[in-house]
Amino acid sequence: MKRVLFLILITNSLTSFGQSLEQTFDFANQLYKQKSYQNAVEAYKRVVYFDSTSLYSKQIYPKIADCLFNLQKYQESADYYDLAYFSTEDSLLKDTHILKKISCFLILQQYDYAEIELLNLDSDLPDSLEYDKNFCEAILRFAKEEYDLSEQIFKKLASDTLAVNALFDKNTKVSKISPKKAKIMSMIMPGLGQLYVGDVKNGLNSFILSAGLFALGVRSAIINNPLDAAISVLPWFQRYYQGGFKKAELIAIAKIQEKRYKIYNQLLDEVEKGGVLR
Amino acid sequence: MKYIVIKFLFLGLLLLKNDAQAQVSLYRNVLPSGDIKKEYVEAKNNKNEVQVVFSGLFLFYKTFFSSQDLTVCTFSPSCSEYGILAVKKYGMIKGGVMTMDRLTRCNGLSPHNYEFDKTTMLLKDDPRITPAVSVVSNIK
User: Fold this and answer.
1) From the CB of residue A247, how many other CB atoms can be counted at a distance below 10 Å?
2) How far apart are CA A46 and CA B127, in angstroms?
3) Each residue of B66-103: pLDDT tens digit?
4) Torsion angle (degrees, nearest 10) of CA B91, B93, B97, B100
5) What residues are paired with B116 via a beta bridge?
6) Does any domain span residue B15?
C-alpha cells in the first residue's frame, strides 16, 4: 500500500503544473472586474513577484493602485501610482496617475505633497483631465488658504457662480475671527474669548470656575491671611485661568475650522449641482 | 415608445448624477472638521449602580472641570480615566485606593518606572493591564 501511495505521489508531482503567470494575471483581472479589490491586490502582487521580465508590471501597478484607492488605503495607493507613473512612457497616462496621486494626498490632508504633484502635471491637458486638475487645485488652494485663487477655480467648476461668490464672502468673514484676540480677551476676563467665538457654554464655565476660585482666594485672604490664600488657592486659580485663555485660542481655531469645513462642503455641493462627471 | 425612451434617459441621468456624487463625496473630509468634542468610552457599558454613579461623576468632572484646564496629567490614560477604569475593574474600594495611589504618583518624578507612549508623549499606566515589571519596586 505504501509503495502504491509513493508511486501516486511521484507521478502526480511529475504530471501536475502550477498556475501560470498569465492565468494568475487573468484571475486577478477577473477579481478586479468583480470589485473584489482585496483579493485582486493579492493576486496582482503575486504576478509582480514572479514576473522576472517585468512583462506585466506596466499594466499591474495602476490596477493595484486603483484597488488600494477603492479600499481606502490612500498612502499605499499613492506609492503604487508613483510606480505606475515611472513604468509608463505615455504622457497622458502619466498625468492620469499624477491626478490620482493628488487625490490620495488631498484625502490624506497632505497638502504640500499634493501641491508638488500638481506642479508635475503637463500645462496642456485634454479637457477631461483639465477638469480633474481644476477640481483638485480648487480644493488644494482652499485647504492651503489661498482663497482668491480657489474662488477663481471654483467659479470655473460650478454652474452657479453667484452662490460661489456668496460662499467666499462668508469665508472672508470667517477669516476675521482671530484666535489671538480670543486669547487676549480671555486673559482680560476669563470666558470672554470663548463668548467672542460663540461658545457660550465654555465661556460661562471658564468664567464661573475662575471667578469662584478668585472669590475663594479673596475670602481666604480676609478670613485667614494672604499667604495661606496664596498657597491654597493660587495654584488652582492659575491652572484654570491659564487653561481658560489657552483653551479660548484652541476653541477659536476649532470654530474657524468648523465654519470653513461647512463652507467647503457647500462649495462641493455647488460643484455637484454642476453635475459634470469626474 | 416615447415613455420608454424618457424612462431610460431619466435613469441614465440619475446614474450619472449618482456617479458624480460618489466622486465628490470622496473629498468631503479633505479639510479638518474642527470637531473637538471628545467621546468618553470609559463611562460607557456600566454594569451596576455603582458604575453608573462613578461614570456620572467622571463625566461631570470631565465636562465642567477638566475641559477648562490644560493637559497636566503625566499619564495615559489620565488620572480621572484611570479612576473610572479601576472602579469598574476592581470595585469601589480597591479601585478607589488604586486611584488615590495613582494621584500620589502623578508627578513625573519617576518616569523610568513606566513605559513611554510615543503617540501621546505620556507615561503608560493602565489599570486594565498588569505591567510586566511592577510599578513600585519590591526591594526594601
Assistant:
1) 26
2) 44
3) 988 877 899 989 999 999 999 999 999 999 999 999 99
4) 90
5) B123
6) no
Mutation pick from A71, A132, A261, A267 vs chain B, by most beta carbons of B within 10 Å, is A261
Contacts of A254 in chain B (CB under 8 A): 34-36
Look at A127-131, A139-143, A166-170, B82-86 and tell me which has the smallest mean pLDDT.
Answer: A127-131
Whats the size of chain B, residue-wise?
Answer: 140
**Positive or negative: CA dihedral A219, A224, A227, A233:** negative
Q: Which residues contact B47 (CB under 8 A, 6 or more apart)?
A: B88
Domain that holds residue B104: 34-124
From CA A102, how far away is CA A116, in angstroms rounded?
9
Query: Is B24 among the domain residues?
Result: no
| Disruptive mutation site among A204, A247, A270 for chain B (greatest number of B CBs within 10 Å) | A247
Which residues have CB under 8 Å from B122's CB, separation 6+? B73, B74, B75, B76, B116
ipTM confidence: 0.75
Structural domain contains residue B67: yes
Domain count, chain B: 1
- Residue of chain B nearest A251, judged by CA positions: B36
| Contact: A272, B33; criterion CB under 8 Å | no
| Locus of grid cell 486673559 | A187
pTM value is: 0.78
